[in-house]
Amino acid sequence: MSITASKVHEVREITRIERIGAHSHIRGLGLNDSLEARNVSQGMVGQFRARRATGVILEMIKEGKIAGRAVLLAGQPGTGKTAIAMGLAQSLGSDTPFTLMAGSEIYSLEMSKTEALTQAIRKSIGIRIKEESEIIEGEVVEIQIDRPVTGVGAKIGKLTLKTTEMETIYDLGNKMIDCLMKEKVQAGDVITIDKATGKISKLGRSFTRARDYDATGPQTRFVQCPEGELQKRKEVVHTVTLHEIDVINSRTHGFLALFSGDTGEIKPEVREQINMKVSEWREEGKADIVPGVLFIDEVHMLDIECFSFLNRALENEMAPVVIMATNRGITKIRGTSYKSPHGIPIDLLDRMIIVPTVPYQEAELKEILKIRCEEEDCEMSSDALLVLTRIANETSLRYAIQLITTSSLICRRNKTTEVSVDDVKRAYSLFLDENRSSQFLKEYQDDFMFYENEEHAMETN
Ligand SMILES: Nc1ncnc2c1ncn2[C@@H]1O[C@H](COP(=O)(O)OP(=O)(O)OP(=O)(O)O)[C@@H](O)[C@H]1O
Ligand SMILES: [Mg+2]
Fold first, then answer.
1. Nearest-atom index, ligand 1, CA of 76
2. Which of 38, 81, 361, 367 to mutate to test the pocket of ligand 1 (most atoms within 8 A of CB)?
3. How confident is the model over 105-135, as pLDDT tens digits?
4. Strands (E), 173-320
5. What are the residue boundaries of the AAA+ ATPase domain, all occurrences included (predicted)?
């Protein structure tokens, strides 16, 4: 099997287009050079210790030295766990892979839970491949081909190439002549010749020949005559993920599966061969491994099988840094009847470092809401922002963020440009937060379908 990896480096950019989402205001972790969190920076507010801790982890990842570590972000809902992970992703740079998944994503009918986790892990490991080649690049001055007089036997010829600084004559063999003829190379073309393979590529026509009307068509591309030496070294570096290499080399799917995401399960033999090939490349100095980050949000949704799989996977030689987030306290581990902190088995917890997130102060809530207003292009009066902050404090930050969109719509209906206190109040009365909604249910539960009295509800829990 030949391993191909070079075709897909453009694929990933396409999948990362995002609209205004819950975290689109986050552009980084907002740290200074000594990794202290700035009060408000890069869309990030407060939560200083967790941000600083994540900054330390970021530094370690960037150095490329750690792999197979696990970090848990633990804290109440709405305390910025997902936001911090997004901030980390933004600061990693495009060369380090970052994979985001929610714990519940592993439950699909198409593949087993461990396959889903394996794919996520392999999506988070980058392979940086270096290719160095020697090329000859120049403008064709003359091609001279001598056919044997008898009509049979090898052709020989001479090719004159120039740059702006030099000109050289090369002897041509039979194979090169065929290549030149196939590419229809003629004087005035700028070409490159790969010295190792003899492959000839036409870059375009030299500007100096722009007036040779008989040799140009409407599609002709004009390029500058190359500068400097005719012989050049060219190094190409691209980073692909292990998962991308898996998919490309999996006979059943082919690399187009990368676009649809419809990759199905990948055979263990394929992976084994790829692992071997990659270590070979590594020994030969052709490739480096770049451990990236796998972020598993809502990690309490994983079950005992997944957790023990992760235990093992983290010990693997090629493992990414796994960051998890949860808002659960002491609760049942899925798939068992045992309880454990965060619903995560103790033996996995023992391998993790835990970063707590804490509830926000009112001033911080206000700052976050202000940033969200800017993100959603919503002008809000300072009084309205104050009311909204109070709402965030008494209900939840998420609910208050929702009210920005709704109150700005109400304001637009009223043909005013600035959201006023009344608009916020209106939105507040139209849309219930969780507390008021349960209050409402308690008052009117008799009128709803499938009403269960409280004792019954306790039993089923
Ligand atoms: N420190 C912060 N700076 C800026 N925005 C924040 C910050 N913390 C939270 N937010 C924003 O507040 C909202 C809620 O935060 P987030 O989704 O990160 O909470 P969470 O801790 O992941 O909650 P859950 O446990 O429910 O998943 C998001 O829109 C997020 O971008
Ligand atoms: Mg979250």
1. 25
2. 81
3. 888 777 889 999 999 999 999 999 888 888 8
4. 189-194, 200-206, 222-223, 231-241, 287-291, 293-297
5. 67-359
